[in-house]
Amino acid sequence: MSNDRPAGDDLAAFAKRAGQLAGWAARTGFEFTRKLPGVEIAEQVIKQGERQLLSELRRRLDEVDDPYHAAPTAASAMNRPDSNGARPVEATITLVHTRDRLEPLRAAMAELLNHSIGFGRERAREYLYAIILRQLTPDEARILSALSDGSPFPAVDVAERTNLGGAGRFVLRNASTVGKAAGVSLPDQVPGYLTRLIGLGLVELDEEVPSLETQYEILLTDETVREAEKAVKRAKFVKRTVHISRLGAQFWQACDPSAG
């Protein structure tokens, strides 16, 4: 790979390769042909390729978009002489030194401020999406995929019922059937996953939808919900729905590996 190739191009290429790999598996109905001769070996090769691609993609995201990483790197570049033995006079960021020691946090903030000057609308959006993508776990990506078509899923909070029938102390928030629908690896972590996705602005909560009553009944039998119910003397269930947000839909459209 050429050293003068823009980092953004390399990142896009790796993302495209990962998307093509996932898309191929989906188009060929890979899960339905696993019992065919030789497919088990092929599956191992595909999974290994996926891991390598995703690992490299995450590394690229960390290096290109992490201001904390960029600031010390820039500091190192400032102190490194060029081929003629001269040291660079200018730097792209303002580095902060205290007693001849670089303060990475302050330098990272300077990096962000410099980005805010040079970024246009599209580049700023790509940067935002890259930062969000780096924070997601594989299970959270699955949940976002399940929500990407805009369908609502039931969600429930478990609280201790007060004497007046209201909700007192909450012992569980954001339990939902979306985790099971998405096929997450850690079903008991779904409430935490949704809390994080809500915090990132990718997912929103809304009012209870009566047409999902059957799904609410199924959710109330979930092991995580039952354990929370046992933690209080009298349980009160607060029913809501969870769905993808406007930002989440835009983010998914930009990152959907099956598109393009």
Q: What can you see in these coordinates?
A:
The protein is 54% helix and 15% strand. It is an alpha+beta fold. The strands form two sheets. A four-stranded antiparallel sheet has the order 4-3-6-5. Residues 1-8, 22-39, 75-79 and 86-95 have low confidence and may be disordered. This is Abi-alpha family protein. It comes from Amycolatopsis speibonae.
- The number of helical runs is 11
Strand order of the largest sheet: 4-3-6-5
Structural class: alpha+beta
Low-confidence stretches: 1-8, 22-39, 75-79, 86-95
SSE series = HHHEEHHHEEHHEHHEH
Give a short account of the largest sheet: 4 strands, antiparallel
Strand content range: 5-15%
**Residue-averaged pLDDT:** 76
Rg value: 24 Å
Global morphology: elongated
Q: Which percent range fits the helix content? A: 40-55%
> What is the total tally of β strands?
6
Q: Span from first to last CA?
A: 24 Å
